[in-house]
Each structure stands twice: as C-alpha cells, then as structure tokens.
Amino acid sequence: MDQIANPAPGFQRNPGKVITIEPYDGTVTVRSGETVIASSTNAKLLTESPYPSVFYIPFADIDFGQLRKTEFSTHCPYKGDASYWSVLPAAEVGKDAMWAYEQPFDEMVEIRDHGAFYANKVTIEAAPD
Question: Which CATH architecture has domain 16-128?
C-alpha cells in the first residue's frame, strides 16, 4: 500500500535537531491518586533537548475509560499535531493531562498510538527491570 510522505518541516529547517526514541526497559505506571490510568512494559522514552525526557505509553496499555478527549490541540514542527485527553479522576488538575500524536510526521512514526502524560498533573512511576 502506498503511503503519502509526511516529512517534518522542523527537521527540514533544522536537520541537526536530535530527538531519540528508545524502548524503556521496565514498567511505567501512571496514576491519579490511587487510580491506575496506564501501566506498560512497552513504553518508549523520548528525549529532546532541552526538554525533560517523556514516556510514551502504547494506547493498548492506557485505560481510556478514565480519560475524556478534549478539543485542545498543539502543533510541534518535529512531531506533528497533538490531541489531548483529560484524566477524569484528577478533576480540574487532570485537564489536558495526556497528549498523543495520532498522525505524527514520518520521522516520529514510532510514537503513533502512544500517549504521554504531564508529570505535574498525574503521578508517573518508572520501575526499571
């Protein structure tokens, strides 16, 4: 099946930019209070200087029953357009607490069908194997 190329304009303008995505060797758990929102042994760690590293968790390991998709979105010239979800058990603090690049640029296809969470809105625990 042919796919339409979707290159990141950010990398075209700034080819020296480095974003790494590596499998995390361990378990990543996301909680709101005592409620587990996500738990995965298949998380990926995205590193993009100067920002803190971020865990991306496969959609299959996220409890979407605890989330509500919002209208909020942002754009990254390297990753694409991000959609957001609120973490329901976290009430107002959990607003737009998870984001995902549902149709990322070609260079970031590894994070498609993965969600990431703001550490100041939920508790993220990483336990290495």
Answer: Beta Complex (2.170)
